[in-house]
Amino acid sequence: MNPDLEQLHPYPFEKLATLFNKLPASDKTPVSFSIGEPQHPAPEFVQQVLRENTALLSRYPATNGLPELRQAIADWLVRRFKLTTVDQDRQVIPVNGTREALFAFTQALLDRQRRPLVLMPNPFYQIYEGATLLGGGEPVYLPCTSASGLQPDFDAVGEDVWIRTQLLFICTPGNPTGATLSKAQLKALIQLADKYDFVIASDECYSEIYQDRAPAGLLQACAEMGRHDYRRCVVFHSLSKRSNLPGLRSGFVAGDGEILQRFLRYRTYHGCAMPVHHQLASIAAWNDETHVETNRALYVEKFRAVLDILGDVLKVSAPDAGFYLWPRTPIDDESFARQLKAEENVTVLPGRYLSRTVNGRNPGNNRVRMALVAELDQCVEGAERMRALIKRL
Fold it and tell me: Main EC class of this protein (predicted)?
């Protein structure tokens, strides 16, 4: 077996299962804030496209996807991020969700003979780390603290680190923090990528869930700099959160055409083409914004309700975007999560499970991630129970 498998950490939900091991059964209805799986209904018009095209199960899909899908994605990018142009033949590749693509892209990109460094936010989506380790890279964890606006302090990264960097992961809006990077920050990172010759992979799968202002994107920053080739920049988007379609496994990678054409060669061998009927359903989803606006409004309503309940008993505030809360806990995060589960049957994810300890500090300590994905009444019920626990502490 690949010896690098031994470097992989248990997934956060494995740790959560261990934390809850042997807790007595509760007579209260469970409320889960732990898993970021959208629970709003999938759009009916997308389901209808799937039902009408099941005969396409008899066809092998092309790795590069249907031209119509790539064009729908390119058109959406132009509309959403105010781009001048996106070449659907060279700058877009449909993928089976961002998780699969983030992992595969890292394997294709890293040159392990150069002892590459891969920079990532801390806390982070664990795929960044696992993909790095299995690709022969060394993770460098950049702490996201209140002092740095819950995004990495890139100015604190030394030149010796930048010189060895091959790949920088950014997540905007962040998981779990909900913090976003401004266009000015993104442009500064692009300049660093030029100076030190590394690639920026921007995970933007939460970009369509926001309170007031649409988050900026990496390609948007490129376009404002006149870089319509999107050199050294790739973005990852998905229908999972935007359109409540996590089971469709549909997303895309877009950006630097030279990089993506080489990534396409990798994917051809990887054997991960999206089924044709999923592609047709994806075209329908990318071409419609009405369901996205409805979805966004539901999250805004839930944030307002939950924050109204918890705002005076917990150190918590609305995120820039995304559907997570990242509150500080009145006791350590593991103890808080276990007691909340035991006494109120409400599940949250300890922040330390999403972070790594570096130089004796873990930025996830004494925080929990709350995913407001359930229906409004469940979110309100869970928040009320959490409030009751906090009042007893």
Answer: transferase
Question: Position 374: which residue type?
Answer: A
Residue 188, CA distances (Å) to 143, 224, 303, 344 in order = 18, 12, 32, 46
Residues forming beta bridges with residue 312, ordered by sequence position = none
The pLDDT of residue 70: 98
Cβ-based neighbour number of residue 35 at 10 Å = 14
Domain segments of the chain as ranges: 3-41+291-392, 58-288
The rounded distance, in Å, linking the Cα atoms of 343 and 340 is 5
Q: What is the CATH number of domain 3-41+291-392?
A: 3.90.1150.10
Q: What is the pLDDT of residue 101?
A: 97
Torsion angle in degrees (nearest 10) through CA of 323, 327, 332, 337: -40
Closest CA to 120 of 137, 143, 102: 143
User: How far apart are alpha carbons 357 and 338 in whole angstroms?
Assistant: 21
The continuous run of DSSP H or E covering 307 comes out as: helix 290-310
The answer to whether residues 313 and 384 touch, using CB atoms and an 8 Å cutoff, is no
Question: C-alpha angle with apex 341: 335 to 347, nearest 5 degrees?
Answer: 100
DSSP string, 191-217: HHHHHHT-EEEEE-TTTT-BSSSPPP-
Alpha helices, H only, 147-256: 159-164, 183-196, 218-224, 239-242
CATH class of 58-288: alpha beta
Nearest CA among 171, 273, 186 for reference residue 227: 186
Element (H or E) spanning 369, and its range?
A: strand 368-371
What is the per-residue pLDDT across 279-321, written as a single tens digit (0 to 9) for each? Answer: 999 999 999 999 999 999 999 999 999 999 999 999 999 999 9
Strands 233-238 and 199-203, by their bridges, are: parallel
